[in-house]
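Practice problem: predict the structure.
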Amino acid sequence: MKNKILHFITTILCFSPFFVHAQQPGSPLDGLPLYLLSVEKTSTQPGIPLQSFCVGKIGNDLLLVGGRTNGFHGTDPENPGFQFPVKYNNKQFYVLDMSTMRKYTATLPSAYMDQLSSTNMQACQSGNALYLCGGYGQNSSGSYVTYSSLVVIYLQEMIAAIKRYDTLNLQRYMGQASSSNFMVTGGELTNIGSSYFLVMGQRYTGPYQLNAAGQKYTNSIVQLNLSNGGVGTNPTASVVRSINGGDQFHRRDLCVQPIIDNGTPAIGVFGGVFTPVTNLPFLNPVYITQATNGSVKASINQSFKQKTNQYDCARVSIYDPNSGAMSVNLIGGISLYAYKNYDNPNDTLQIDFQVPFVRNITTILKARNGRMFELVTFPQNCMPTFLGAEAKFIPLDQYIYRGDSRGILDYSRIPNDPNGTIIGYMIGGIKAEIPNTNIMHPSVTNSDIYAVRLKRSVNLSEVNMISVSDEEGGTKVKAADEKVKSQYEKEK
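Answer:
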């Protein structure tokens, strides 16, 4: 659920003269994987116009549920200023057979209609079970709520029933449990092994407005035990611990990704919106690790500041077992730093307090020794339009790292083809024609499927390695925060 920052930011701080340039060759990236990602439309387009949805996968089949069928909220010409009209709720299951690019649909069971047609649910797959919780939307009574149920969908049975058009009693392949712990929207549900984590997000009651009384951020990471007894059973859940991070955990619509950290499964948290008062994206990553004794730690990396692509978007985790480097790739979304002219190959990234949609792909690279880098595609290598926000990436199984159930790719298994190798597909999300959409220029849902291609072993000159020091970047952003805060105090 994307909200632009407060209106006065546009009037006092449209742009700052702070630029980011490419690093010169002979840099500390020696020995680390260097590659380019690009996207291209597939030849077959079954058309699934969704954003802010959830997805599960069994074999070649995907199940898509929840989300919305229109673009960025609040810019619908037919409903000016109306944030989440119920007519754009996705009230169907979609099944997409990736081997044939054929789609199937089925209406959601009435007992689950309200929650499963909501936006920004959290979801995590474990084997045949797709767990979903929370989500925000207008219920059948007309109230806007954040839902408080955990739902499990048994994927193999559900997908098979939909593909054979046996859709009269789909709820037999589902189960449900209710708890206020699941009353979250815009966060993420993910796992390390059998431990599940509900990461940040918010609870919202009433029609959606930025900073309204009904908006409460969780400011927490909650560790959960989740289980189920298979088809015909409800899920069970219990809270193991809750980690409160204060203002640094005041995040929603963030990028949460599975990673390998020093050879061990972990979770990376990147970006998210919005900082208290000033409503800017977050810049410091958070890493969630679990020791062999079960203890959990959430660490904020204060020395690295992510400049681009801070909003929920399609993302790709790639681990290189040879160098021990871990990279998280962020495809589009919205960003605090952006190019202004994608037709100019010499354009530079510039801070933009309007936080626009962007066309670049960003790689957050962490070396084995802990040093981090941010690599951004140059304008000529960016996407053809503004894509990626609230989209999903589906990796190809043959490149998965050691059968990793969370979808991390193994860089050493990806061929070194001079034309690049398709490593997966981007589905859904928001599509915009301009960086800042409005009622006159609204965004839409992306109904095209894009192949994501990786080209290995590129030259350093082909990628924009941000070279501005973290200290300088942080100082500039902090100074802007203070200006916005001062103006906010005057206008209260």
